[in-house]
Amino acid sequence: MPEQIPANSVGLVTPQTMAFDEPLPLRCGRSIDQYELVYETYGELNADRSNAILICHALSGHHHAAGYHSMEDKKPGWWEACIGPGKAIDTDKFFVIAMNNLGGCHGSTGPTSINPETGQPFGPDFPVMAVRDWVKSQYRLVKALGIEKLLAVVGGSLGGMQAMRWSIDYPDMMSAVAIIAAAPKLTAQNIAFNEVARQSIVSDPDFRAGRYYEHDTYPAKGLALARMLGHITYLSDNAMREKFGRDLRNGKLNFNFDAEFQVESYLRYQGENFSSKFDANSYLLLTKTLDYFDPAADHDGDLAKCMAQAKAKFLVISFSTDWRFAPSRSEEIVQALIAAEKQVSYLEVEADQGHDAFLFPIDDYVNALSGFLNRAQQEVHDAA
Amino acid sequence: MRPDLAIIENWIPAQAKVLDLGCGDGELLAHLSTRGVKGLGMEIDPAKINRCIARGVSVVQRDLNDGLTNINDNHFDVVLMTQALQVVERPDEMLREMLRVADQAIVTFPNFGHWSTRAYLGILGRMPMSKALPNSWYDTPNIHLCTFKDFEVLVNDLGFRVLRRSVVDREHNSGRLMNLMPNLLGEIAIYQLCRR
Fold first, then answer.
1. Coil, strand, or helix at residue A93?
2. CA distances for B189 relative to A150, B104, B158, B172, B175, angstroms
3. CB distance B60–A372 less than 8 Å?
4. Hey, is the C-beta of A379 within 8 angstroms of any chain B C-beta?
């Protein structure tokens, strides 16, 4: 709980909901007839509506990117490090939009929503979303907010993939795109981790083929395991060593299978905490969305060809110890953008935190992002 | 602007696609962009990269010792490298990479054959140090120093051709004597190279 809200926070914020009646055709061939998107905004939209920045969230993210919902909140939004007055995404200058993606479990239509056809929760019947489906739904919300062109689309990890998809599908909709700690597609190893996560969920007896709402059960164990695995891939070897080493909880070995090492108890806590807040069907869906992302597939695997239609200026950022989406994966994006004659800047930030580094206010990273966005705003201003 | 950059600027056609290796804070590329040049910089120092980004110069982080594998053949019209050839691990491979990705290369480097360097070694019997080469032999980043003659032999061996050469002193001024005996009197050379 914040005793007092820090001066560089957007402060107390209230999520909003927008309902859509126009069916959303999906990549899988199905469509969603009606849906709701929950979102938050920070800062003020300027008179010519030219200062809007869309934030795309990662796997377990949501619309609550900055500020606090109440004075009782333990933590601020997930990207408090970068969004706020005077921060990299400066809410004194920019109008920031963050939304929860379809298929998620934080208020936008997803597996826990009621399926109007059955009167029951969608559960496993909720369609598997593709990144392009999300982007289409985000586009509709942005337009509904009266914004004809975004200043920028910004995202980390899976959010970076959405930013990339925006630049391909709606090239005239933004001046700048920042792709942070992302990859142009998942490797077999990435997919393998996701598959183990999914298997740990579906093999939980309480999963009940995804219909656990009706059976009044919940695959908490399976989801916790999935998260424990994911969490390992978000941290670097070094970060874990620094944080836990081989420290024992009770100072001695017990020769049993309880959580003896600090790292074990940390992972168990993270898993349990996550499974109490997240929906298992959502987790399955979101990991599939990640696995399917491969924009170059529509262009014979040629990423440069795929990016040719983009018009934005790009900033690509990676982190030295990120092994989930290693710097070399960002460099693939950069190489394609150069080959496609796009304006692109790239920075590999020295950071110990692994994949999670994109959530931290690391100087070189924050300076690159703010310099890039401020410059984009100046160029839009100069062109007007 | 640095005087050598002013000379280089005149060698770059308007609207050209230019790659600047070791672009620093992007001064030259920012200036060239006012003439319609489409530039990309490569730099290793994050602080300099951030100054490029803030002024709107496209720049990608790269250790030039890794080559230019991220760039397709003939992608650029001109590739530049100012005062950095002597610090890369393999200047010969660097030059080959440069003329793979661009039709023309512009390179500047300090002349180790300058009379003052020769005198330093010849009379003092020690590895030369000067304003241009301020480091001791053991901690210098300038690991591949050469004379103009050495450089021209390499260019020839690589099968490349010198299109233009401008020899200047440390203040980047030129003179008749310097042009008569460049390898003895020139301090910095600016070369424009192409494939044969």
1. coil
2. 47, 16, 19, 9, 13
3. no
4. yes
Rounded-to-integer distance, Cα B173 and Cα B45, Å: 29
Torsion sign over Cα B139, B142, B147, B149? positive
ipTM of the shown complex: 0.94
pTM of the complete model: 0.96
pLDDT of residue B1: 64
**Beta strand pairing call for B102-110 and B188-195:** antiparallel
Residue A118 has what pLDDT? 93
Structural tokens at position B148: 């103009």
A303–B contact, CB cutoff 8 A: no
Active site residues of A: 157, 322, 355
Q: Is the dihedral of CA A130, A133, A135, A137 positive or negative?
A: negative
The reply to whether residue B54 touches residue A379, judged by beta carbons under 8 angstroms, is no
Return the structure tokens found at A338.
């150069």
Per-residue DSSP letters for B73-128? Answer: TT-EEEEEEES-GGGSS-HHHHHHHHHHHEEEEEEEEEBTTSHHHHHIIIII-S--
**Res A4: pLDDT:** 85
SS3 category, A352: coil
The answer to whether the CB of B37 falls within 8 A of the CB of B15 is yes
Pick the CATH number of B3-111+143-195 from 3.10.20.30, 3.40.50.150, 3.40.190.10, 2.40.30.10: 3.40.50.150
What are B65-119's pLDDT values in tens digits?
999 999 999 999 999 999 899 999 999 999 999 999 999 999 999 888 899 899 9
What is the residue type of B62? R
**In this predicted model, what pLDDT tens digit does every residue of B172-188 receive, in sequence order?**
777 777 778 888 888 88
The answer to whether the Cα torsion of A31, A33, A34, A40 is positive or negative is positive
The minimum CA-CA distance between B193 and chain A, rounded to whole Å, is 23
Q: How wide is the angle at C-alpha B69 spanned by C-alphas B63 and B74, nearest 5°? A: 120
Residues in A closer than 8 angstroms to B58, CB to CB, are 313, 343-345
Tokens 């020690």 correspond to B126
Task: Tell me the one-letter amino acid at A63.
Answer: H
Any idea where the domains of chain B sit in the sequence?
3-111+143-195
Cβ neighbours of residue A125 under 8 Å, at least 6 residues apart? Answer: A115
| Measured CA distances, A91 to A10, A81, A86, A139, A370 (Å) | 7, 12, 7, 21, 11
Among the partner-chain residues A335, A344, A378, the one whose CB lies closest to the CB of B58 is A344
Q: Which of residues 324-353 of A touch B (CB under 8 A)?
A: 331, 334-335, 338-339, 341, 343-350
DSSP letter string over A188-236? HHHHHHHHHHHHHHHTSGGGGGGTHHHHT---HHHHHHHHHHHHHHHS-
Q: CA–CA separation, B37 vs B20, rounded Å? A: 12
Tens-digit pLDDT profile for residues A44-77: 999 999 999 999 999 999 999 999 999 999 999 9
- Is the confidence at residue B168, as pLDDT, over 90? no
